[in-house]
Amino acid sequence: MRWISLATLLASACSGAIGGPGGEPDPDERPAPAPTPLVCDDGALRPGRAPLRRLTRDEYDATIRDLLGDTTTPGARLVDDERGVLLVDGRAMSPLLAEQYLTAAEDVAARATEDLEALYGCAPSAECLASFVTRFGRRAWRRPLTTEEHEELVAFHDAFVEEAGEREATALLLERLLVSPHFLYRAELPPEDARPGEVVPLDGFERATRLAYTLLGTTPDDALLDAAARGELDDAEGVRRHAERLLEDER
């Protein structure tokens, strides 16, 4: 099997005919055109476009479990996924599926907010909420929140807290985080200043996400996100080291 893979890899790097014609030509046969000279790939990587991938049901369940300790497998009640790839015309998120994601987020948030202090990791307060949004937002969206995103999420919570109470406001905040495309989709987007067709390397958080979902089928843990923030996933050696750690995880 390894030889087959190797042969396929080598063949994909070359085009044309390998070797020249052998023996004497048949005078009764029409001469064949001269073979195309062997042209091998120059070795440069030419990656394709990175598709926008929606979390599969299993990935959704594992992510909810690792974020909130919820083992009720809410993803099992979602309609069958399409391998998590957003189609060109955008039909991967049907109205039915969107409604089911909202229902799942409501159920998950209701359970998660039964004990606010356990959820927050501190006694509920303005400072505690801000810290929770920073920490949970990074885990849920698999990257640090921007300042604008953080302020908007805190303001969203505060807009409901006086009328609905702390628990309901926090549940609504969780729902918003869990139905966001930043949570439901794994996006690998080029920077705004990238030129059309330019090959752009993944950033550390995108690499962390790829590693975690490829090896464990779930969201990156804090250790992997911290490594991304420190730039440890910016080279092959760092990726290898953290991949080995993940492979030792029993999940």
How would you sum up this structure in a few lines?
The chain has 251 residues and is mainly α.
Please render the helix and strand layout as text.
Layout: H1 2-12, E1 14-15, E2 39-40, E3 53-54, H2 57-68, H3 95-112, H4 116-120, H5 126-141, H6 147-164, H7 166-178, H8 181-184, E4 185-186, H9 204-215, H10 222-229, H11 236-247
Antiparallel strand pairs: 1-2, 3-4
Helix pairs in contact: 3-7, 6-7, 9-10, 9-11
- Please indicate the percent range of residues in DSSP E strands (runs of 2 or more): under 5%
What structural category characterises the helix and strand content?
mainly alpha
Strand order of the largest sheet: 1-2
**Domain count:** 2
Low-confidence stretches: 1-23, 84-91
Q: What is the count of β-strands?
A: 4
Note down, in words, how this protein is organized.
There is one protein chain. By secondary structure, the protein is mostly helical. The protein folds into 2 domains: 53-185, no CATH class; 204-247, no CATH class. The protein contains 11 helices and 4 strands. The chain has helices at 2-12, 57-68, 95-112, 116-120, 126-141, 147-164, 166-178, 181-184, 204-215, 222-229, 236-247, and strands spanning 14-15, 39-40, 53-54, 185-186. Strands 1-2 form a two-stranded antiparallel ribbon. It has a two-stranded antiparallel ribbon with strand order 3-4. Helix 9 runs antiparallel to helix 10 (222-229). The chain is globular. The two termini are 28 Å apart.
